[in-house]
Design brief:
Layout lengths: L8 E3 L4 E3 L25 E5 L1 H10 L6 E4 L5 H9 L3 E4 L2 H9 L10 H11 L7 E7 L7 H14 E12 L7 E10 L2 E10 L7 H7 L5 E6 L4 E7 L1
Parallel strand pairs: 4-5, 4-6, 6-7
Antiparallel strand pairs: 1-2, 3-9, 7-11, 8-9, 10-11
Length: about 240
């Protein structure tokens, strides 16, 4: 099922792989990340990220934490997180949305059965399993019923006092926005990989985000030059 349903536990500072059916430690093959890792044909932009810096400031002096990355597995994130001595789980939420609801079909995201299927396939983890979640920009492509269910599930699978990092585009009118994958280069630096344009299902401002994360302890905002609102949410 890899890489579509990657629920492989990545352990230790070398980024070794272990999981169901594994009899030992193995190297990570490039095929695990969707084939070649070449960046020649990708549109890449490197930027500093205050949100990322804040996220790592909360866990930098700890080891052995469990982090969930919702952008799908990529080599840079695996290396960076595991070299800090943490465990990394990866889920490709963009692919999960397509599998559960089809392309550009937010109407189906109100179907309780499809919502439950999506959560089962993508966020089926134990309560309080994670010490942090890299949500990235996945939430702005969800209709309100699915969004509420996803945020509720995230609040359950992270431990109290844990942190989420989420990105939302800053737009005044609904229109197609760039969709990125995010590759960690340093504690405060990201590589933005342009994946083309996509229409967000809804737009957010600070007030609506505070309401969305109303059950969390705190919400903090940073604005980037890519017109992304970086949001740090404390459980």
């Amino acid at each position: 099922m890899l890489p579509e349903r990657l629920k492989t536990l990545l352990r230790g500072p070398l980024g070794a792989v272990s999981g169901p059916g594994s009899s030992g430690v193995t190297a990570i093959p490039a095929s695990l990340f969707g084939g070649s890792l070449s960046k020649d044909k990708e549109k890449l932009v490197q930027r500093q990220s205050r949100g990322l810096e804040q996220f790592f400031s909360y866990i930098r002096d700890q080891v052995g934490l469990s982090i969930l990355d919702l952008s799908g597995a990529n080599q840079e994130n695996v290396n960076f997180i595991t070299n800090l001595g943490h465990k990394l789980y990866s889920e490709d939420i963009a692919r999960g949305l397509r599998d559960a609801f089809g392309d550009e079909n937010p109407t189906e995201q109100a179907n309780p059965g499809r919502i439950e299927y999506f959560l089962k396939q993508n966020l089926d983890y134990e309560e309080g399993q994670f010490d942090g979640v890299l949500v990235w920009d996945s939430l702005e492509y969800m209709a309100p019923p699915l969004l509420a269910a996803t945020v509720e599930r995230l609040s359950r699978i992270v431990r109290p006092k844990s942190y989420l990092l989420a990105f939302f585009h800053v737009e005044e009118k609904m229109g197609a926005v760039p969709r990125y994958s995010f590759r960690i280069q340093a504690f405060n630096t990201l590589l933005f990989v342009d994946r083309g344009q996509r229409m967000p299902v809804q737009l957010f401002n600070n007030r609506s985000l505070e309401k969305l994360f109303g059950k969390f302890e705190s919400v903090k905002f940073f604005l980037t030059r890519e017109q992304l609102r970086e949001v740090i949410v404390k459980r």
